[in-house]
Design a protein that fits this description.
Blueprint lengths: L5 E5 H14 L4 E5 L1 H5 L3 H8 L4 E4 L2 H9 L6 E3 L9 H6 L3 E4 L2 H10 L5 E8 L7 E2 H13 L3 E7 L12 H11 L6 E4 L1 H6 L7 E2 L26 E13 L4 E2 L5 E2 L4 E6 L20 E4 L2 E6 L7 E4 L11 E5 L5 H7 L4 H6 L7 E4 L8 E3 L1
Parallel strand pairs: 1-19, 2-3, 2-10, 3-4, 4-5, 5-6, 6-7, 6-8, 8-9, 9-10
Antiparallel strand pairs: 1-11, 11-14, 11-18, 12-13, 14-17, 15-16, 15-18, 16-17, 19-20
Helix pairs in contact: 1-3, 7-8
Length: 372
């Protein structure tokens, strides 16, 4: 028998979250961002839940080709663009839209001389300082791009650094407006946070990522509770052992947890080799939460490669074989991430290949799981 750990991808939750985005940005078209293998959910598994989007955004050329093989005929956007001149014919072959963020990419298009029309999104650096033309060089880049043989539509593009924080987007939006003033073309600016909280930046297209998977852009689940997002990934296991501790007994490597009273703990078939964060705390004032038999409890001790331990005090009837939820379905992934000093994005993307994954194709309670 295999280990009891398994993940479930909930396709109805993906579709629900896409509907949430459309309600937040009713006048915009939606790039569903499926980079990093759909944030760890799997392109194949996520596709059915998100195929109501207007387009898909990702980084990897092979993942873009996979979407075409799955039957997607709509737009696909390469968010970082392309990397070699020999990629340009593939953009044409698979009808891909590409970000263009530097002079080198313009030069590669010029050299490749695509037959076109090649759709590009010209990226403006408005203060994120990762990719994009500086504001003072943007107009020259736009003029150059529109004269290149084979280039068709040009969309203005930028990315916000603080749409989920107190600083907000006003400083970047001001740079964007000045740099693109009187230039024709549509625009795409909004990530998940801007889609939820900054309607003035929606424009023709929005580019949601984490919210499509039920996570919060801020990493705090309470910040998105009113929107009705649903977790698209849940991670489950079982208790494989139960231990009785006396006062002073310790748990796990490094003896970081010491029992202050007699207590029962459960051993769960899940560890950092499965993608659960090793740095999730099982000691101190805010240990990472876990559900056992549907009851919220928490880690005790350090996470091991293949196992972790949980306090069974809130669930005295728990025994070997009792179900455990590591995140999702009653336990927001953001709660686990927050306790672990990270964000839900990382936990989703870190799900290990050795964890079996099934797909739920109907909403609970009428959920039907299909192995994939």
């Amino acid at each position: 028998m295999p280990r009891p750990i398994h993940a479930v991808i909930h396709q109805p939750a993906l579709a629900n979250n896409l509907d949430v985005v459309r309600r937040c940005a009713p006048d915009a078209r939606v790039w569903a961002v499926v980079k990093a293998n759909a944030y760890g959910h799997g392109i194949r598994r996520a596709f059915a839940g998100l195929r109501g989007a207007d387009g898909f955004g990702l980084l990897d050329l092979n993942e873009a080709i996979l979407l075409r093989e799955l039957g997607w005929q709509g737009p696909i956007l390469l968010l970082e663009g392309f990397f070699q001149p020999q990629d340009v014919p593939l953009l044409e072959q698979y009808r891909l839209t590409t970000a263009v963020h530097c002079d080198e990419q313009l030069r590669m298009i010029e050299t490749a001389r695509p037959k076109g029309p090649l759709a590009i999104q010209l990226k403006l650096n408005t203060g994120m300082n990762r990719l994009g033309f500086p504001a003072g060089q943007y107009r020259a880049a736009w003029e150059r791009a529109r004269t290149l043989p084979g280039v068709g539509s040009i969309v203005h593009m930028t990315h916000f650094s603080d749409a989920d924080g107190a600083r907000g987007i006003a400083h970047q939006l001001e740079v964007f407006e000045a740099a693109t003033a009187n230039l024709p073309g549509e625009a795409t600016l909004s990530n998940s946070a801007a889609t939820l909280w900054h309607p003035q930046a929606h424009r023709a297209w929005v580019r949601p990522g984490i919210v499509l998977y039920g996570g919060s852009p801020t990493g705090v689940e309470a910040d998105v509770a009113q929107f009705g997002l649903q977790p698209a990934m849940s991670l489950h296991s079982e208790l494989i052992a139960v231990q009785e501790l006396a006062v002073g007994d310790t748990v796990g490597y490094g003896s970081l947890f010491r029992a202050e009273r007699p207590m029962r703990i459960g051993v769960v078939a899940c560890g950092y080799a499965d993608g659960y964060p090793r740095h999730a705390p099982g000691w101190g004032d805010q240990p990472a939460p876990v559900l056992v038999d549907g009851v919220r409890t928490h880690l005790v001790g350090r996470v091991s490669m293949d196992m972790l331990c949980v306090d069974l005090t809130p669930c005295p009837k728990a025994r070997v074989g009792s179900p455990v939820t590591l995140w999702g379905q009653g336990l927001p992934i953001d709660d686990v991430a927050l306790a672990s000093g990270t964000v839900g994005y990382e936990l989703m993307c870190a799900l290990a290949p050795r964890v079996p994954v099934s797909v739920a194709t109907m909403s609970a309670p009428e959920t039907r799981a299909e192995a994939l």
